Amino acid sequence: MQTFYTVALLLVGIILTNIIKQFLPKIPEAFILITIGVMLSLTPFFKNFELQPEFFLLVIIAPIMFIDGQKQSFTKIKQRFSVIFLLSVILALVSTLIFGLLTNIFETGWTLPLAIALAAIVTPTDAVAVKSLTGNTDMPGTVGEALELESLFNDATGLVILDLALAVLSKGRFSLLDGLVHFLFVAAGGVLVGIIAGFLIVSLRVNLNLRTKNPETTVIPISLLTPFIVYLLAERLGVSGIIAVVATGIVHNWETSRLRLTSTRVQLTSTTIWETISNVLNSIVFLILGVSLPAVWKAMQIIGTAKIIQIVGVSLLIYLAMLSVRFLWSVRQSRSTNDNLLGAHDAKQHRFFASIFAISGVHGTVTLAMAFSLPSEIAGHSFPFREELIIIATLVILISMLVSAVVLPIILPAKETTYSLADINHIRNKMVDFATLQIRDLISEHDVRDALTEQLQSQKGNHINQVEDFRAYQRLLYETKDFMLTYIHGPSISQKYSAEVVNIYEKVLDCYEIGFSNRKVHLIKYLSFAMHKYGEKLHHEYKHAMWHIQNGQITPHQRKSARKAWLANQSVEVLAKRRDIRDALLELNTEVINASDLYIDDVLRARLVNKLSDNDHINFVRQAINKYSMQIRHDYSKNTVYVDSNYYIQAFQQEYNFIQRGINSGYISPAMAAVLYDEINQAQTLQLQRVQQVLAITA
What we know:
Layout: H1 2-23, H2 29-40, H3 53-70, H4 74-79, H5 81-106, H6 112-121, H7 127-133, H8 141-171, H9 176-211, H10 216-236, H11 241-259, H12 264-303, H13 305-332, H14 335-342, H15 347-359, H16 365-372, E1 377-378, E2 381-382, H17 386-411, H18 421-440, H19 446-457, H20 466-488, H21 491-496, H22 499-511, H23 523-550, H24 556-568, H25 572-609, H26 616-632, H27 645-665, H28 670-698
Antiparallel strand pairs: 1-2
């Protein structure tokens, strides 16, 4: 149960973050997650929480790196191999060496291997953290790509160097040749294991995709297990599990190119699952960082104020050294490499991009996990300065995040969008209304027509102005009622129905207050109207009850007996006339409702011609008229209406057509069109799945 509550609280933390960031949009999501993580550490389930590095790397980091690898293609890796090698390996090695020597100079009590171990810990960067901190800024694409390529393998580079440093501390000696051989074995071995395992797993998945009837039941579970299997296999063979997982992810990108448009359901489902997992795991990373901070704070309280000041100074020095190394590295490389790396067109722009690249070297939870992975004992003795190393690593993480969060939004331009939320709501509403009108003209059955309309209108969401909607709703409601009264007194109705039937229907229409039943109208006016109608209803019920009491018809049995007695006293002609009038009223009601539908459609069509998109009140009026029709028919049950899937396909096609015409006319931008196309694709997939489920149930 402990594990269950731990996972549940982490998920609750993610949910709370997504709620809070709606109210604090300017605060980076990473800081909200860290703060909530600190709050979670106060709960009994996270009390005395200690990060387990092996578990963290396997369960959290391995899937994240696998997902990052899937985003890279063989072609891109081939073209950018030199850049990846420079960033992930050479820059990491140079940074580690410089940080280690610098730390060794200022921390005189530390041995060089210990300083190198710290340098290896603070070397890995976190591109996800950078994205979280710069979500509202326009990061240059080439710099963002360089940061992603750097983070692909520098985690593994840092882990390998840390492993070497710990080996030296354990054995008390260092061989450059042995260290180089070990590094190459671990790194190259990880790549080899990842590629071989990746091709084997991909081949299995491709065959299952093409040969089995329900491939998603086997292919997707295999996909979910892949990063864990590859990581454990690589670590078992003594090579880098992180590098192996990244290599396997890159190979899996090849699978997509092999499948192309086959097995689309598997590919869509798998992509959706992995995107969700990626978002959750990346959030958990920052939550765990926050949960781990109290343990670091306790360690700081133990070592004393003077030592804390010294450690803070060393942390600042390491960060400044890292900043300088990253900036000089990207500035001083050969011109061709720089252009290839940062995509700069001139020296000034190149220096600007180099400064962004340097400041964006944010460290994350991998650094903290590596710090906590330091053993308590080594070579039969307590690990020297373990608490100090953990504190320095934590401070470097926080400093790098704070500097990036403050500086990058200042030097980078704000992210610009070609459309606002109001713009896309405006176009979406018009698109849905256009498709609704087009498809309603093709359907003769009222119930089917309205069921389809309700489904299509739900695409709009809840972007409504209650006050304005109420006024427009009330106005159209009375206009529709006037139309219905005018219609029943028209020549076509007079010729078909008797004056008695028309008069009865008119009385029913006058007595029944159509509408005001939708809860999305203005609250005060709705409550006032509801109280008035409730008072009228109570008065009517009182008179009804008194009549039954006076006539001795109190119980249901007494009422039923009185009804039978009354019918027995009526002549056959009277009863037949009553049935004829009732049938005529129902038939007239159907005609009136169909005519009202056409009238409301014309109102909507006219508003679209005038380029008006705030048409929610029209759908509310349609609902009120339908409710009136149901009460006339005494049909209070909400029966499921089957809508042919072809109607949905045609409706969504009309939405596609609307967007395409908007693009051709120039009033829908490509960016807005992409968002709407994606919404239609998802709505179409979901709706067709629901239709299939209904068919399966009724079959």
